[in-house]
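Supplementary Methods, section 5.1.

A reviewer requested that the exact input to the structure prediction be made available. We therefore reproduce it here, unchanged from the version used in the analyses.
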Amino acid sequence: MSRLAQLPASLRTALVERRALKVIAGLTNFDAASVERISRAAGMGGADLIDVACDPALVQLAAEVSGLPICVSAVDPELFPAAVAAGAAMVEIGNYDAFYPLGRIFDAAEVLAITRRTRELLPEVVLSVTVPHVLPLDQQEQLAVDLVAAGADIIQTEGGTSAKPFSAGSLGLIEKAAPTLAAAHSISRSLLAAEQGVPVLCASGLSSVTVPMAIAAGAAGVGVGSAVNKLNDQLAMVAVVRGLREALGTAVSAAV
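The structure derived from this sequence is encoded token-by-token as follows.
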């Protein structure tokens, strides 16, 4: 937990109070104009963290327009040091949603190997690792425990690409979020049982309807990507981020 102390105070507080909001620009999104729009909306909408592709120029751009801490995502550990040197506050392995349509699957052994290599390269940098949702839940639980033992400071869930919502409206949004919510519930409890009290971020397929459910499931925060980054209008992006922020605030108030 000592590495988490390096994070900006506002982000640390959001994690402790279980209301952290990360806006995800996309692991494969290297479009500077898109990242700039998303980052500006994240800053204006009240997010705590922005997750961008692992590129030093994007790190500097996102930080400048948002005023927020930056997380960089990749699956190649060798890319992380340059992004950290450019100002990234933390690094993340995954998530893997962009790879599944290409037939690229990450198993537990590979994720562990990437984690260990990242920790070798960056022994003091905050490291978040996504648990692949293609694994059965019991294997996700075990991998999360193993990842923390290997040096992960934060565990992230995913699952939006495996969901097959068939209903309209709020019910469809809940159906879409079900896999990542289930993972957040199972993983957070397995980590507590193993006395590994690291924060869990619930991500992939979430909306303002389901982010309070993620917190109720045991997450310390949420990561939201497509609900924001698929929009082209700046005002609409800001409105969505503010809606997510308000939904998390409601969840925290209701839990007190």
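The chain has ten helices and eight strands. These observations are discussed further in the main text.
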